[in-house]
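Q: I have two molecules that I believe assemble together. Could you output structure tokens for the complex as a whole instead of separate predictions?
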Amino acid sequence: MSGGLPYNTIVVLGGVAAIGFASGVVGSLSVLRKRPLVGDAAAHATLAGVALAFLVTGRRDIPTLALGAFLSAVAGLVTLVGIRRYTRTREDAATAIVIGVSFGIGVALLAGITTRGLPGAAGLGTFLLGHAAALTASDAILLAVMSLGALLAVTCLFKEFVVVAFDADYAAATGWPVSAIDVILVTLVAVMVVVGLPAAGAVLVTALVVIPPVAARQWTERVSTMLVLAGVFGLLAAVVGVLGSAAVPRLATGPLVVLAAAAICGVSFLVAPARGLLMRRRHPP
Amino acid sequence: MTSDAWALHGWSMATAATVSASCALVGTFLVVRRMSLLGDAIAHAVLPGIVVGVLAGGSLGGPLVMLGAVGAALVTVWLTQMLRAGVGLAEDAGAGVVFTTLFALGVVIVSLAASRIDLDPDCVLFGVLELAAFDLVSVGGILVPRSLVTAASVFILVGFMLAATWRMQVFTAFDIDAAKAVGLPVGSITTALLAATAAATVVGFEAVGSVLVVSMLVVPAAAAELLVRRMHHVAAVAIFIAVVSACTGWLAAWTLDTSAAGMIAVMLGGWYALAVCCAPEDGLVARTVARIALAWRVACEDSLARIWRAQEATGRSTVSLPAPRSILERAALGWLRATGCVEATAGGVRLSPMAARDAEIVVRSHRLWEAWLGRHADLPLDHLHPPAEWIEHHLGITMRQQIADEMAHNEADPHGREIPPEAG
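A: Yes, here they are, computed for all two components at once.
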């Protein structure tokens, strides 16, 4: 690693950095809206979509699989809303049901594909825990462009998202289209989960939209600052995770990304200026 | 299929069923206490505990691993609660941070130590149910899978603990504040439940892997809760669903040559979907039937009332058939004629004596309500009809009597039409 990184690695790093940044930003809005685990349901549902997309098209390029993943993430979220709307199952149980059953469908499909030895099936397993090294430069560029698209959407609808996140009742009473804004936000979360999938994997990608925002919240009381900070934390975690799994090939990317984010989060809990546990003791409010 | 193959399937199915039963039993309380996601968090977070237990020389399902797992579960809960108290983090966000971190930590340790321990990331994610029948121990002279022995002991232990504290657990689950107020040790009761969850999760982890345990914990109880109401019924139905799903899931996976863990979760999902559709009181089918039945009754009553009003307006008993306003009303009119409630005569139709009484009650309800609204609500005259048109199908005799008493001697509605008397 002394004479500079290969071109592919640099592009993948850049792509993953963009993914991390956008995940932090979109995740902040989801955490502020008090729906931090929506991404988890979407993430576990993606696996079935990846497997189905492979079964239907026989291809395993990133655009095909990402489309499948996105569609099944949306199907999972629609199921979640349906359970909440039409049954008396509690919201947390509904989330757990979608997580467990959709992941079960994905695992069954994936195992079925693997035991039948379909050509090209072997690589699908990397979507479980993430394997950024398997990305090509063009994949990384595609994912980065999608991340920038999500960022653009957040920029355009910033005011709407913030109003709904902070006081949905007030927003509804003053005529904001709250449910439409919520649908857009949840769709953005689903997009970020899908985009983060190749890097962080279905099981842990949700951490990218939860941990950096929680860490950023410790440092600031301003929404815009929190979003940018969460983006930076997400970027750092993603880059550290990719570099770590490049250095130790046995390690999947996802867990390393999560541990990096968790380290940032832990430091934030302890030393953030106003809210940090250590700082508070010294300067009682 | 040979008897050897059956022995293999039988042992694996028995293991899967026992594991699911333990998970379903503790899941019943998790679901009622809105701790489903905590179950999910624990299922992920026990991983580092298990790994540390294995590294310290324990075997999967052994006491050392159990201890590690229960410890990790309690650490998860403690950390989540500390984050809430310390930095004001909402419980679900806190759980999201803690369990993903612990799970990631576990995966990293497993990946690094995979060569030294009999655990690898695949077995963490999918479990090793398929291998259950290859690791046998002798119990009273019979060779049974070691994992079945562990699962059965956990089931007995968890079952015994819950049975012994059943009333306290139920009380705490439904009203934790009241339980606290009457002096129940709510903290210990919750810790016992969490320890039971961790124990069930560890055997579940070995069978179906970290992620799919959550379906075993939550889905049977959530489905059972839609079907029955009493807590011990919910637990029994949940265990039944869990056992059946485990067996059918295993067989389906064997037939389709795929992952047993995945198929068990799929079967559980199927049961939940079935419960959503067929729940006796508020299942989709029951509610649709009730809605259609109501729409049909409304259409029939509206048709009778329209004929009655036409009779009242013209002063004749034979009137022309009112034009139906919807397909349902057309069908209702056809039905009323077929059953003789509406009789065809020369020059039109008339109501049978019984149908006339029914129609009178509907009109009476309608006009009583208009009169009551006219007195109590400051509404213009033309706004009285729509609410009355809706409520006329729902006013019982007691309510009609109350309104009539209040309107004493006022025999007309605000439009000046007579309110028909209560039919004898």
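A: One point stands out. Strands of chain B lie at 136-139, 142-145, 342-345, 348-351.
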